[in-house]
Amino acid sequence: MQYIFLILLSFFVIKSTLAEPTITETRIFYPIKGHSGEELYEQMNIHGPGKQFHASTRWYVTWHYGYQQNKQSCQLTQLNVDLHIVYEYPYWLNYQTSNKNLQKKWEQSFHHLEIHEKGHGKNGVKAAKAIENALLHLPVHSECHSLKTTINHTANDLIEKHLQEDFEYDFKTQHGQKS
């Protein structure tokens, strides 16, 4: 009875002391110049991420864990899930010297780009939280090698699922052209 109580106690202590995923965001910019909407569009097509899109979001989830082997089992004792999101946007170099009408159109377009890219960022957050939740609820394993394999397979499967959701999001919104 004491053995079961200690296992349950350690389970609740581990689960309750773990925090949300750590999230860091980075915004990077590529330079463009232009005095018309057409010139700006052409510049974004030439200099944009992958020469294909006007903005992009990449997210990376990593996980680090500790475990403890007992006589009959191996269990997770520590878990840190980190998410790094990188947003890449155009930076209009001659914005200040351009006409007010074009500036206003630029601001509206940029705002729509940001909204779309933040949707990808939210999907990265969902992935990190899903990974943390799934790993915290893994059952105790009989050996640590099996636990480590399960941890990595579970996390990688969830990353693949959320990457697919990013593709579906782009398809549904036509890469931000539709809401």
Model description:
Helices cover 53% and strands 25% of the residues. The chain is of the alpha+beta class. The protein has one domain (17-173). It has a 3-stranded mixed sheet. Helix 3 (100-136) packs antiparallel against helix 4. It is elongated.
Can you describe this structure in just a few lines?
The chain has four helices and three strands, in the order αβαββαα.
Provide the descriptors you would attach to this structure in a database record.
single chain; 179 residues; three-stranded mixed sheet; 4 helices
List the helices and strands and how they pair.
Elements: H1 2-17, E1 22-32, H2 37-47, E2 56-69, E3 74-92, H3 100-136, H4 144-173
Parallel strand pairs: 1-3
Antiparallel strand pairs: 2-3
Helix pairs in contact: 3-4
Mean pLDDT: 90
What sequence of helices (H) and strands (E) makes up the elements?
Answer: HEHEEHH
Ends apart, CA distance between termini:
57 Å
With strands numbered from the N-terminus, the spatial order across the biggest sheet is 1-3-2
Helix segment tally = 4
- Our Rg estimate from Cα atoms comes to 23 Å
**SS-based structural class?**
alpha+beta
Taking pLDDT < 50 over at least 5 consecutive residues as the criterion, the unreliable ranges are 1-17
Number of separate strands: 3
The percentage of residues in β strands lies in 15-25%
